[in-house]
Amino acid sequence: MAGAFLLGLGFARIITSATSGDQLGAAALALAGTLAIRAGPRVGREWREGMTGRLLGVVLDGLPPVDGPAAAGRAPASPREVQAEPTTPTGPASAKTPVRPRAPGRGPRISWLPTSVPAGLMLGLAAVAGGLAGAASDNTPLYVAALGLLVPLVGVLFYRAEAFLLVLAAFPWLDFAARRALGPGMGGAWDEALLVVIFAALGFGWFVLRRFEATIVPLTLPLGVAFVAACGSVLLNGVALETGVFALRVTFEPLLFFYAAYLLPKDVRWVRYAVTVFLVASVALALHGLYQYVTGAPMPKAWVDAQEQAVIGTRAFSIVENPNGLGAFLCMGALLSASLLFSRLRTAARVLMCGVFVVLVAGVVVTFSRGAWFGLAAGAVALAALAHRRLLAWIVGLGVISPVVLPEAVLTRISFGFSGAYIAKSLTAGRLLMWQAALHRAFEHPLFGLGLGTFGGTSAFLFGYSRLWVDNFYLQMAAEGGLILLGAFLWLLWRAGKGLVAAHADGGDPAGRAVIAGVFGGFVAVVVANVTASVWETLVVGQAFWFLAGMAASTARGGRSPAARLPGMGELWPGPEKSAREPRPERPAKKKDVPKSAGRGNRQQRRAAAKKPKR
Predict the structure, then answer these.
(1) Better-predicted residue by pLDDT, 360 or 88
(2) Helix (H), strand (E) at residue 557
(3) Second label for 67, Cα 20 to 30 Å away, from 124, 237, 368, 533?
C-alpha cells in the first residue's frame, strides 16, 4: 500500500510540478513506489512473521503467518496454489492430484488475502489517495495523506467486516479524536460516514463475497412504527426542517448501531475481542473521570446545588462532557465486567476483572449522578435475576448496610434529592416543574405531541424552543412526539430486552452467556437512568447501548466468520473456543440405549442359521 501511495503521489507531482527539479524529485518518488510494490511480497512475509504482523494480520485476512503451523488449513489463494499444494494420504494425493513444483530459487507464494481482488483494490485505492495528495495544495496534503492511509484500510475491512466490531467498541475515543481533528463541520458528520461505510461493507459481503446471509432484525417493525410517528409529529406540527431533521437524527441514529452490530458477521472470539476493547475504553473514561475529581476540574455551577457544594467539589464528566452521560456509560461497563467476574475465569484473569469492576464503579460514583446510581442498582438486580440468582440476597444485604458504608458525599447527594428544600426548588424552576409541564403537553396533544425537537431536549435547547430540560426521556418523548411515538419506543425497548433474555436462554459458550447477562444488566441500568436524565441523547451513550444490545442479541443467531485468534486474549476468557450456538457433537449410543431387537434377524433367519452345518 505504501508503494502504491508513493507511486500515485509521484505521478501527480510530475504532472503538477512547474520546475524540472521538482519533477525529478517526483520521479524519484514514483520509482521508490514501484520498487516498494515489487518488493512488497518478500518484505510482507518477514513482517507478518513478527508480532505486529500477527496482530494486524487478523484484520487483514485472519490467517497465521505463511509457513506457520496453521497455514495448511487455509483455503488456497489461486489455482496455481491448488496445484502446488502438498499432498497427504487423506488429502489431494488420494485423488492423484498432480503436483506442480515451484521454479528453482522462488520462495513460497505470498497471499495477503484469500483472493487477488482485495489486494488489487487496496493498491488502487492507495494509488488514488497518493494522487490526491500530490495534486492537493500546500495546506492540505497532510489531511489527504491521512485519508490515503484510511481509505485502503476501509477497503480491507470490506473483506473482514467483523473488524468493524472493534471500531464500534472504541467509539467514544474515536468520536472524540475525530471531532477534534475534523472540526465542528466534518467532525459532526463522521459518525454518519462510519455507518454508511459499515452498511456498504455488509452489502458487499452479502451480494459480492457471499460470506454470510442477510437476516431480519427483530426491531424492524417497532422501529418503523416509531419512525413514522416521529415524522408525523414533525410534519403535522409544522416543525422547522432543520430542527426536525436534527431531532430525528438524535432520536434514531443510535438505533442504527444496533443494526450494524446485529448484522456484522461474528463468532464468539470476535465478540470477546469487542468486549475487551469496550472495557478498555470504559476504564480509560473512568480513570479520566477519577483524575478530574481528584484534581478538582472546573465545572458549571448549575451541576451542583448550593447546599451540596460543601461536600461535592466537582463532578466527573471526562470527554463525554456530561456527568449523567458518563455515569450511564460506565454503568454498562461495570455490569459487563461484574458478569464476567462471576463467570469461570482463571485466578489472574479474575483479579484483573475485579480491578476493572472497581475502577468502573468508582467512576460511576464520582459522577454524582443519582440516575446512574439508581440505574446501577437496578441493573445489578436484573443481572442477578437473569444469571446469578444466589446473589440477590447479597444485593439486598448491601442495600441495607449502604447508609453505613457509603461516603458522606454520596449520602448527602441522595438524601438531598428527597429533601423538602430540593422539592420546593424543583417545583419552582427545576426538574419537577418540567415533568408537570411535559405531562400536561402530552395529554393536551396525545397523538403527535407538540412536535419532535421542540420541548425540553437537546434540539429544543439548541434551536431556542426551550431553555429548561425535562430530564426524563420518556416524558420528553411523550410531550414532543405524542403517545404513539412513546408507545412504539417502549415496544422497541421491550423487544430488545426480550431478545437479550432469549439469547441468554439459548445457552452455548459460558463466556457468551456471561456477556449477554452483563449487557442485559447494563441495558436495564440505562433504561432506569433515563427516568431522571435524557442520557440517550448523548451520542456515546446511545451508541454503546444499542451496539452492545445488537452484538449480544446476535451471538445466539449462529453467525459465523473465519475469525482468527488474537495472541494473548484467550487467557482472559472462559469456556471452549466455539462459534456462537455451535451444535454439540452427538453422544455415542451406549449399549443399554440399543434396543434388544437391533441387529437380530427374524425367527426364520435364526432357525435357518442354526440348521447350517459347521465347517
Answers:
(1) 360
(2) none
(3) 124
Q: Which residue has the cell 472470539?
A: 269
> How many angstroms separate the Cα of 321 from the Cα of each of 9, 15, 293, 316, 467?
40, 47, 13, 9, 19
Domain ranges of the chain: 1-69+115-157, 192-554
Output the nine-digit C-alpha cell for 414: 441522595
From CA 318, how far away is CA 292, in angstroms rounded? 7
Task: Return the top range by mean pLDDT from 29-38, 140-149, 518-527.
Answer: 518-527
DSSP 583: P
- The rounded Cα 41 to chain-centroid distance in angstroms is 33
Tens of pLDDT, residues 561-613: 444 333 333 444 444 444 444 455 555 555 455 454 544 555 666 666 666 55
What is the length of the chain? 615
CA distance 377 to 391: 13
> Residue 129: which of 116, 146, 112 has the closest Cα?
146
- Cα–Cα distance for residue pair 357/360, rounded to 1 Å: 5
If you average pLDDT over residues 87-114, what whole number do you get?
A: 40
Q: Please, what's the largest Cα pairwise distance for the chain? A: 110
Helices (H) and strands (E) in the chain, counts: 25, 0
Those residues whose C-beta lies under 8 Å from the C-beta of residue 159, and which sit 6 or more positions away, are 61, 113, 114, 118, 209
Tell how far CA 424 is from the center of its chain. Answer: 42
Among all chains, which residue has been given the C-alpha cell 454503546? 544
Closest CA to 562 of 117, 58, 154, 45: 58
pLDDT in tens, 49-61: 554 445 444 444 4
* The model's pTM: 0.73
Residue 519 and residue 611: Cα distance in Å, rounded?
72
Rg (CA), the chain: 30
Write the CB contacts of 196 (distance below 8 Å, at least 6 apart in sequence).
none
Kindly report each contact of residues 199-202 with a partner whose C-beta sits within 8 Å and lies 24 or more positions away, as own/partner. 199/259, 199/260, 200/158, 201/157, 201/158, 201/161, 201/164, 202/161, 202/260, 202/263, 202/264
Look up residue 246 and give its three cell numbers.
436534527
